[in-house]
Amino acid sequence: QMQLMESGGGSVQAGGSLRLSCEASGDTMNSYCMGWIRQAPGKEREGVASIDIDGKTTYTEFVKGRFTIAQDNAKNTLYLLMNSLKSEDTALYYCATRPDGSGTRGQGTQVTVSS
């Protein structure tokens, strides 16, 4: 069974950048349409970005042009490069084997953006 572990979160000022990583074990990531999902306190979870088995990427409109999702199959690792961060990007970010956050997911990594 796949296990996922996120890392790379932290506290940054608005306009800054972070790179999140999601390392998989127990199964190969390229068999799934992997997604990054975030959830802020008091809000519903939101699919941020996904990458399918053909490498096609999709993004929520709120992060298009600022975030990039990528996958390194050799390392079995998913990434989310986040640029031009805004305070509204503050949330717990986690990766999952489905773009809507269902399926197998990790514990998440906290991203806090101060304005």
Give a verbal description of the structure.
The chain is an all-beta fold and about 120 residues long. Helix content is about 0%, strand content about 50%. It has no helices and ten strands. The strands form two sheets. The chain has a six-stranded mixed sheet with strand order 2-10-9-4-5-6, with no helix packed on it. Strands 1-3-8-7 form a four-stranded antiparallel sheet, with no helix packed on it. The model has no long low-confidence stretch (mean pLDDT about 95).
Can you summarize this structure?
This protein is mainly beta. It contains no helices and ten strands.
List the helices and strands and how they pair.
Layout: E1 3-7, E2 10-13, E3 18-25, E4 34-39, E5 46-51, E6 57-59, E7 67-72, E8 77-82, E9 91-96, E10 109-114
SSE order, as H and E? EEEEEEEEEE
Separation of termini?
40 Å
Largest sheet: number of strands, sense, barrel closure: 6 strands, mixed
- What's the arrangement of strands in the largest beta sheet? 2-10-9-4-5-6
Q: Label the structural class.
A: mainly beta
Mean pLDDT: 96
Q: What key attributes describe this structure?
A:
6-stranded mixed β-sheet, 0% helix, mainly beta, 115 residues
